[in-house]
Description:
Layout: E1 2-6, H1 13-23, E2 27-30, H2 31-41, H3 44-54, H4 61-75, E3 81-84, H5 90-102, E4 109-114, H6 117-125, E5 127-130, E6 136-138, E7 157-158, H7 165-179, H8 181-188, E8 192-196, H9 201-216
Parallel strand pairs: 1-3, 1-4, 2-3, 4-8
Antiparallel strand pairs: 5-6, 5-7
Helix pairs in contact: 1-9, 2-3, 4-5, 6-7
The structure holds adenosine monophosphate.
Adenosine monophosphate binds at residues 9, 31-32, 35, 52-53, 56-59, 64, 85-86, 88, 92, 162, 171.
Amino acid sequence: MILIIFGPPGAGKGTQAILISENYNMIHISTGNILRSAVKEGTGLGELAKSYMDNGELVPDDVVIGIIKDEIKKSISGNGFLLDGFPRTIPQAEALDRMLNSEQLKVNDVLSIEVTDEEIIKRISGRRVCEKCGAMYHNSFDPSREKGMCDNCGENLYQRDDDKEDVVRTRLQVYREQTEPLKQYYENADLLSEVDGLGTIEEVSDRIEKVLKSMAK
Ligand code: AMP
C-alpha cells in the first residue's frame, strides 16, 4: 500500500503518520525529518535547505524530488510506504507519479488532514520536539512527563525555528498557495480522502482508520 498524508503545518500529520506506519507496518518517509537531520548533521543538503526551512518556505522541487527518489528505491521491496510531507507542489506530485509508474506502482490513497488556521496557530506555539529522537510533544495537549525532557530518551525538548509564530504564518500561506491545489489534483484521480483534524490524537486516528478500512473493502 502506498499512502500520502498531507495537511497544513500543525495538522498533526507527523503524529498520525507514525501511528499509521506502526499499525500497518509501513515505512514512514518524512521529507521534513530527512531535511531536519541533514541540517543537524551540517551536510551539503542541510546547508542548502536550512534557510528555506527557517523562513517557512519550501525547499526547491528538484532537491526534494531527488531525496524522495532515493527513499522510494530503498522502500520498494517492503510492505508499502507512507509519504509524510511529500508531495507539496503539483510538480512534486507529477514527479512522484512518474517514479511510481516506472515501477508499476501507484498511490492507493491520499489523506488530507483538515484544520483551520486559528487552531493551527494555537497548536504550533506549544509544540516541542526532542533534540535526539524527534518525538513530539505539546505543552498543553500532550506534555512530556518531565517538563522540557523527552519521555523516550531523556534528551532536551526544543521549539523548532519554523514553529515560531511569524514563520508559521508564512508556512500557512505557502501551504494554501502551493500545497492545497494538490487536493484538486488527487480529487481528479479519485484518491482524495479528507479527514477532520480537530479533536484528540485518538479521535483523528479513528477517523483515519475508518478511511483506510473502507479502502480495503
Ligand atoms: P514538515 O516537517 O513536513 O512540516 O517540513 C518542514 C519543512 O521542511 C517545510 O516547511 C519545508 O521547508 C521543508 N519541506 C519538507 N517537505 C518538503 C517538500 N516536499 N517540499 C519542499 N519543502 C519541504
